[in-house]
């Protein structure tokens, strides 16, 4: 960064000195642009014929002093005259500059108007490289009863920055032989392409969009593309709650198997239009933990769920051994029935209701033991404390939990203030269960799981309590399924 600033400062000094030298004359030779550079010192010796909008550039030439107006792509662009000399003009390409890919009627050029003439230079400004988010294509039934993509059919490609497309094709895994689309058409917003599939369809490979600004790749399959699961809204969902699976190629769903104990049929699963999410309602709870497996016409994908070996407390029999617990203001299993219970729950749970203060609502557990299935050498950076939260309503007279926190003390260290928010979305929805995740680094100074366990003392070593910065607000919150989670 110091090199870059020094480079810019040098240019500024040169600009100021040369401008002062040229003040004696308003005229000069015929202006001419000879090249464009960027202000990155590592690329200072290179000339560019194109650049992404938002970048700072140096216009190089002869007799380009006393610039009155600067145009890029037929659009007037502001500049600082202090950075204008007979050989240089420094400017920043506006981030909102209209580019040729958005309006083909404009000219790809830079034009200067000086006091002694005008000049132009062919130059390409682009919005950025194209991106493929997903594609959709109807599968055709073949004589053998299987379904596949066939030549000459419509394929819809979705993404962004589909500007100045040069070619669209499908290639095999080696990306050697290219099979171009028979035709294609880009919509006005450059985020949707309707194309006609090639004469030859490979079994597996890549869908490729080659544009002036760059090339985009996306996995392609002749049949249904193999699904990929990247995350799940809760690895331990509450009975009757909505579950969301995140990933790619989540389409043509057959069913979802839960721990080998029951299946969720396709008709009870909702697929997002962009094939990146599936949602369903958890109809049962498995007796044993295992894997949630998605089956589609393209294959299978799995993710771990209900790892009861790491369950600290679920209040229904899956929990680590502990001596006892003591509670204040607790509703649910231990004290009294909730006045505004969650609409759905997996049996027992705990919660706190009423008007809050600085210290309000706590549950302390004595001599809590630790899961033994986590290797002692596991880094605490790979471990999270997760639990399910249900909110009956927003906090009165306050933002959506902008001043409300959950405090946790686990294995010897209080993490201070943990915002109540879904670990994926960052939101705190009312009237539904969501998962909060607390990094182990917020709970312990230990670097490994074995060190963390060694810090545990006798007495109350797992505590859950709430506090609120404004006394008198009504706060109804419920918890379930406290567990450890080891990130893959």
Fold and architecture overview:
This protein is mainly β and 488 residues long. Helices cover 6% and strands 43% of the residues. The strands form ten sheets. Strands 28, 30, 31, 33, 37 and 39 form a six-stranded antiparallel sheet that branches. Strand 26 (290-296) and strand 27 (299-305) form a beta hairpin. The longest helix has 21 residues, at 2-22. The model is unreliable at 1-26 and 396-415 (pLDDT under 50).
Work out the helix count. Answer: 2
Low-confidence stretches: 1-26, 396-415
> How many whole angstroms does the radius of gyration measure?
31 Å
- The biggest beta sheet, please? 6 strands, antiparallel
Which assembly state applies to the chains in this document?
Answer: single chain
User: Which structural category do the helix and sheet elements fall into?
Assistant: mainly beta
Based on DSSP secondary structure assignment, what is the total number of beta strands?
39
Query: What is the first-to-last residue Cα distance?
Result: 36 Å
Shape: extended
Q: Estimate percent helicity.
A: under 10%
Note the beta-strand portion.
Answer: 35-45%
How confident overall, as mean pLDDT?
A: 85
Question: What attributes does this structure have?
Answer:
39 strands, 6-stranded antiparallel sheet, 2 helices, disordered N terminus, mainly beta, single chain, 488 residues, 43% strand
């Amino acid at each position: 960064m110091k090199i870059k600033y020094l480079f810019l400062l040098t240019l500024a000094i040169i600009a100021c000195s040369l401008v002062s030298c040229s003040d004696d004359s308003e005229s000069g030779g015929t202006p001419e642009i000879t090249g464009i550079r960027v202000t990155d010192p590592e690329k200072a010796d290179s000339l560019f014929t194109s650049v992404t909008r938002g970048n700072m550039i140096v216009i190089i030439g002869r007799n380009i002093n006393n610039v009155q107006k600067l145009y890029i792509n037929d659009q007037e662009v502001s500049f600082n005259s202090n950075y204008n000399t007979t050989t240089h003009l420094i400017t920043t390409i506006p981030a909102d500059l209209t580019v040729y890919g958005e309006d083909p009627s404009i000219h790809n050029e830079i034009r200067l108007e000086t006091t002694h003439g005008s000049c132009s230079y062919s130059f390409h400004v682009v919005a950025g490289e194209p991106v493929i988010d997903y594609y959709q294509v109807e599968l055709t039934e073949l004589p053998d009863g299987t379904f596949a993509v066939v030549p000459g059919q419509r394929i819809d490609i979705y993404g962004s920055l589909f500007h100045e497309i040069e070619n669209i094709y499908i290639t095999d895994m080696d990306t050697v032989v290219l099979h171009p689309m028979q035709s294609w058409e880009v919509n006005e917003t450059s985020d949707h392409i309707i194309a006609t599939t090639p004469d030859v369809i490979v079994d597996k490979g890549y869908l490729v969009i080659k544009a002036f600004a760059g090339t985009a790749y996306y996995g392609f399959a002749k049949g249904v593309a193999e699904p990929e699961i990247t995350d799940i809204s809760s690895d331990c969902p509450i009975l009757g709650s909505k579950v969301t699976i995140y990933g790619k190629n989540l389409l043509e769903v057959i069913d979802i198997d839960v721990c080998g104990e029951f299946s969720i049929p396709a008709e009870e699963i909702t697929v997002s239009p962009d094939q990146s999410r599936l949602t369903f309602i958890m109809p049962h709870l498995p007796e044993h933990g295992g894997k949630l497996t998605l089956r589609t016409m393209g294959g299978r994908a799995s993710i771990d769920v209900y790892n009861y070996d790491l369950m600290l407390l679920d209040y229904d029999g899956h929990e680590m051994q502990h001596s006892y617990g003591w509670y204040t203001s607790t509703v649910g299993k231990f004290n009294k029935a909730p006045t505004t219970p969650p609409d759905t729950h997996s049996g027992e749970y705990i919660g706190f209701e009423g008007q809050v203060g600085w210290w309000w609502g706590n549950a302390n557990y004595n001599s809590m033991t630790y899961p033994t299935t986590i290797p002692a050498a596991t880094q605490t950076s790979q471990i999270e404390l997760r639990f399910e939260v249900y909110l009956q309503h927003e906090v009165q007279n306050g933002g959506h939990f902008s001043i409300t926190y959950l405090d946790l003390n686990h294995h010897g260290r209080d993490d201070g203030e943990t915002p109540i928010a879904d670990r994926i979305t960052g939101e705190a929805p009312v009237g539904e269960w969501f998962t909060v995740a607390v990094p182990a680094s917020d709970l312990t100074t230990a670097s490994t799981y074995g060190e963390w366990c060694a810090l545990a003392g006798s007495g109350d070593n797992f505590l859950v309590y709430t506090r609120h910065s404004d006394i008198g607000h009504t706060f109804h919150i419920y918890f379930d399924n406290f567990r450890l989670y080891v990130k893959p």
